[in-house]
Amino acid sequence: MEAFIMNEDKVFCERVINELDKVLKNSQSLVQTFEVIQVPFKQNKSPIRLVHNHLGIESWCIRYVYQYAHQLIISHRKQNRLPASIVKYLNCAILINPDVATFWNIRRYLVERVQLNLTQEFQFSSLVLSKKPKSSEAFFYRRWLYSFQSGEAIDWAVEISLCERCSERKNGNYHAWNHRQWVLQKAPNLLSYEIIKTEKFIRKNIADYSCYHHRHFVLSKLFDIQYYDVHDNNLNEIYRFVNVGLSDEAKVNNLEGLIAYLFPNISIETINMTKLNSLLYLLNLIIYDLNMIEELILMHGKYEAFKSYKRVIISLALRIIKLCTYTDYLTIGHFTNTTKPLENTEIKTQNTVIEQLLNQLDSDDNNYIKIFF
Question: Given 49, 68, 72, 261, which is the most exposed site by the fewest CB atoms within 10 A?
Answer without folding.
Answer: 49
